[in-house]
Design brief:
This protein is α/β, with parallel strands linked by helices and about 140 residues long. Helices cover about 45% and strands about 20% of the residues.
Length: about 140
């Protein structure tokens, strides 16, 4: 009986310690599991993976270096039609210019959509695929 009560007390103590650490991290302005801004690398999430942006002049160049984006851009070039570019859920007409001109510091994440998924969600305009860009602060089109 003593062993089971000691086990319960040690688990309760561990739980309280975890809650205390989580609360102190949040009160310091962060999440317990998120590294501080000084430790985070400069990067953009592309399809859920952090991609380094240091030394990259534009989002278009960053996508040209990314394997999945290379395939998407190659397929679009073969089809003779650029992929549809969508910024904060708004399709933009001048997608190539947006990819070259959008400041990398304003981009939070990029999602690449293959042709079939893109057509289902965005219609025939996305017949060469789609590049979805989520900006920090959702500023709209550029």
């Amino acid at each position: 009986m003593k062993d089971s009560s000691a086990l319960v007390l040690s688990r309760l103590g561990l739980l309280l310690l975890l809650v205390a650490c989580s609360t102190s991290a949040r009160s310091a302005g962060g999440d317990a599991f998120t590294p501080s801004p000084a430790r985070q690398a400069e990067g953009i999430l592309i399809d859920g993976r952090l991609v380094e942006t240091r030394g990259v002049p534009s989002l278009l160049e960053l996508l040209r270096r990314h394997t999945v984006a290379q395939r998407l851009l190659h397929e679009a070039n073969r089809a003779g039609r650029p992929p549809l570019v969508i910024v904060d859920d708004v399709p933009v007409a001048n997608g190539q210019q947006v990819l070259e001109g959008i400041p990398l510091t304003d981009v939070a994440a990029v999602t690449l959509m293959r042709r079939t998924d893109a057509v289902v969600q965005w219609g025939t305009e996305a017949s060469s695929g789609a590049i979805l860009i989520a900006t920090k602060g959702r500023r709209g089109t550029f």
